[in-house]
Amino acid sequence: MTASPFAALVDWGTSNLRIWLVDSQGAVLGERQSPEGMGGLDKAAYPAVLEGHLSALGAPSDLPVVVAGMAGARTGWREAPYVETPAPLVGLFQHAVQPEGVSRPVYILPGVCQREGGAYDVMRGEETQLAGALEQGLDNALFCLPGTHSKWALVEDGQARRFSTVMTGELFNLISRQSILRLSVPEDGDAEADPEIFDAAVAQALEPGFALTSVLFSIRAEGLLAPDAKINPAARLSGLLIGAEIAAIRDDLQRHGKAYLIGTGKLTRLYARAITKAGGEPVMLDGGLLVRRGLLASALSLFDHEFKD
Amino acid sequence: MTASPFAALVDWGTSNLRIWLVDSQGAVLGERQSPEGMGGLDKAAYPAVLEGHLSALGAPSDLPVVVAGMAGARTGWREAPYVETPAPLVGLFQHAVQPEGVSRPVYILPGVCQREGGAYDVMRGEETQLAGALEQGLDNALFCLPGTHSKWALVEDGQARRFSTVMTGELFNLISRQSILRLSVPEDGDAEADPEIFDAAVAQALEPGFALTSVLFSIRAEGLLAPDAKINPAARLSGLLIGAEIAAIRDDLQRHGKAYLIGTGKLTRLYARAITKAGGEPVMLDGGLLVRRGLLASALSLFDHEFKD
């Protein structure tokens, strides 16, 4: 290593762990990834896992560490209680907790929760990506993070104002593989293969009064009644589900115009397509870069803060 | 047997089989039930299953038989092709088919399908219950048949005009047992135990712009964020799903006022509660009686028809 590391930044999710050594400008000096996510770790295992990776990266033994994600869950390393909406994204570091059992300084950042109006919701990790987006000037914006459980988040004046978790990916898997529709949706069904079918399903879901559960069975019945029609049940199911999700945030989308998409791959491309269909403009962001920027911002605040004490 | 049987009436569903021997007035002279539904039978097995039950009932060897339900599916005994909406319910018998391999006259009634406006749908068995309701004067009415897949059917001037299958029961099972919400919904969760929670969820689902998939995760988050609150996740999930289903037919419900509910037990009681909440008036009907009446009406038409030939 030529430059001296300022901190180790860790994105510790349910199924993955990513570590970056960075200098104080955020330049990456070393990087590791591993499947040692929160989902597979006992509380007591965290220090050794972390030290193993830091040692492999040649990190000094007193290098401070900032962690975001599920490591801060109740069932993770040490609970970092949620900060409630509206949550100032630059202030997350103030609520970081320090786990026991490590000799170096380690800070685990909190997640964000929402109780307002009974719209209960939680996030852990995504708030640090939003903090990273803030670093690039996105302090009033609508964000979408596609995934098994996608998140939509509205950031206003640098605060996580409102967000919602939508189980679209999980529902797609359950419905296409385990419901009666499994008889219609092939296992290798490709929702991207027939964009016009996907688009038509999104358009249907965006119609006023659309009722998802009352439309799903038509996918099965169409296969029985029109076996020769050009249908792609995976594209139709995916379009109905993603369309229903976007219908729910359409007011925000119309107000902001742009939706910043944090993700990669096929699913994110389908969301971009559906957002366009709903009259919005999707803008792709790199999630790995964002979480690193958010972690660095917290690290700079934390260690600045420490030095001042 | 004192009276002489006119016909054997058979409701042959996916998982059950019911047979009644009746006189020409519909009086039941004998009755059998069995789990030998279409789902577990090879095509070749039907004649022996039927003859076994008829013999146990002491039916004459030339007694004619009328069958409704999944025995008429492509994967059943012999396909009775669907009659398309608008389907005159008194005319179903005209499309009955006669299977091979039996020495007595056997007629399998058709199901009804819908292609109109791309709202593809199918029913087999329910149309005969609707025909039975016609016999008691319900020739302009809205029907709801709760079940794993519920059906809503609009009968106008004695025709099955429009209907839809809603996968509410199946979705409740998949979501409560297999999605992330399984961590919140106890296996023995009783949706009837907290009527006010069920009602509130129905009311939420009836609000304009309600988006089911964007609300589901709040059930999990509420359990995390308000662990001491009085919540009943089963009641809430059930209310959201049934409410979303009723929201989709609310125009029909407002026009007709009454919704005739064909079913029994807890699920039907929940539908009745939700229909009331939506401003409708639920009226319970006995499904077994209706299918028998519908079968008898077809039997009378068929054998009358035969005699005239």
UniProtKB/TrEMBL annotation, chains A, B:
<keyword id="KW-0808">Transferase</keyword>
<keyword id="KW-0418">Kinase</keyword>
<dbReference type="InterPro" id="IPR042258">
    <property type="entry name" value="DGOK_N"/>
</dbReference>
<protein>
    <submittedName>
        <fullName>2-dehydro-3-deoxygalactonokinase</fullName>
        <ecNumber>2.7.1.58</ecNumber>
    </submittedName>
</protein>
<dbReference type="InterPro" id="IPR007729">
    <property type="entry name" value="DGOK"/>
</dbReference>
<dbReference type="GO" id="GO:0008671">
    <property type="term" value="F:2-dehydro-3-deoxygalactonokinase activity"/>
</dbReference>
<dbReference type="GO" id="GO:0034194">
    <property type="term" value="P:D-galactonate catabolic process"/>
</dbReference>
<dbReference type="Pfam" id="PF05035">
    <property type="entry name" value="DGOK"/>
</dbReference>
<dbReference type="InterPro" id="IPR042257">
    <property type="entry name" value="DGOK_C"/>
</dbReference>
